[in-house]
Amino acid sequence: MQVLITDATSRHMLVIARSLGKKSINIGAASYQKGALVFKSKYCRKKLISPRSSEHDAYVKFLQETSANEKPELIIAGSDNTSQYVSDNRETFGPQFRNALPSKEAFVTANQKDSCLKLAMDLGVQVPKSFFPDNVEEANKLADKLSYPVLVKGQLGSGSSNIRYVHNKETLIPAYREIYELEKEFDVNPPTIQEHLTGKGYICGMLVKNGEIIAHFQHRRFREYPITGGVSAIVESCYIPQIFEDSKKMIEGLNWHGIIMTEFKHNPVNDTYNLLEINPRFWGATGLAVAAGIDFPYMYYQLSMGEKVEPVTEYNIGLKYIFLFPTALMSVVSYPKSIGGLVKPLLGANSKTDIDWLDIKPTLSQLKVTQYLIRKGVKKTQTELITA
Q: If residue 121 lies in a helix (H) or strand (E), which one and from where to where?
């Protein structure tokens, strides 16, 4: 095995498996679910059942034992937890381990939401108004001073798994306590309380070599499920100069090395873009970047292996990428009047779906999940849709 892919239930990890598998790189994948999406791919040569990523000690032991037995040169992690485990334990994965990683200190700063925001403020990068209470008592003192709604954000967690929307002061402390309990077993700071911005979300993905950006790509959320806000159903490539310049400041401030993404939200009140967080890993719409002309998974492999990586900064702007099953279809099932918002991109000249006809079994699996969701009704959680 040359590359071990973790979090094999996630759709962006399937993109990585396909990218590397098409270059004849030997891929293995790990998940706690026997029916994981990447397991269905013809490019997955070995399937490993792992503990859940929330089980810290068991998961680290799994990575160490797999490294000793399978000797992967790269471990590509797909979530905040697993990417942190790889960074923290990099010395224990054997002499063959080659991941392009920044310093451990830089990784922690990027991966924990509060330390990332504090660095951004020091560097002059605009962020939403944020508060960093050390405990419940301090959070309670803020309750009467906040303008609602606000977000209570944990330091870890993918998507909105460790975020709670708070509409009034009565629900602030219960939400704060809930996130605190979710993360108390990890060595992270208490939750952050943050202003809620209503604008569109933007992502900037980058590959960085010793502080220098050698590839960058931006996209915006075009359609979500539910349509009021949630999982990306359709994304569109774009380029916003402020987002790139602020992302570059963060990269230089961290002296980054490897893969990373920054997440911004547009503030329509003053027409600015605010940094929400950084994730030191591949992002959910990596497939759009590959479709638009930047093969981040393979470039990361080249960087990690010490091969020459040609810089790529131009890509197909305005390309719409449709996560057809189950997310985009479920957005129509849940709100039939919005069908035009799916049909128009599907028929558009500059659009692609996430279907790979040369590797069709994962799509058939997603189709079955879609049928199941329709039968049960549309009230499904974000996690179920992301991992489907």
A: helix 113-122
**Domain spanning 129-195: which CATH class is it, in words?**
alpha beta
Specify whether the CB–CB gap between 125 and 246 falls below 8 A: yes
Where would I find the beta strands (DSSP E) of 226-385?
Answer: 231-238, 258-267, 272-279, 320-322, 351-353
Q: What angle do CA 330, 333, 335 make, to 5 degrees?
A: 105
Predicted confidence at residue 89, as pLDDT, reads 98
Name the burial class of residue 34, with classes exposed (0-12), middle (13-18) and buried (19+) by CB atoms within 10 angstroms of its CB. exposed
- pLDDT tens per residue across span 338-358: 899 999 999 999 999 999 999
CATH topology assigned to domain 201-386: D-amino Acid Aminotransferase; Chain A, domain 1 (3.30.470)
Backbone angles phi, psi at 89, to 5 degrees: -115, 25
Architecture of domain 3-98: 3-Layer(aba) Sandwich (3.40)
List the domain boundaries for the chain.
Answer: 3-98, 129-195, 201-386
C-alpha–C-alpha distance, residues 122 and 320, integer Å: 35
pTM of the model: 0.92
Quick one: pLDDT at residue 384?
45
Strands (E), 196-345: 201-209, 212-225, 231-238, 258-267, 272-279, 320-322
pLDDT tens digits, 237-255: 999 999 999 999 999 999 9
Q: Are 54 and 84 in contact (CB under 8 A)?
A: no
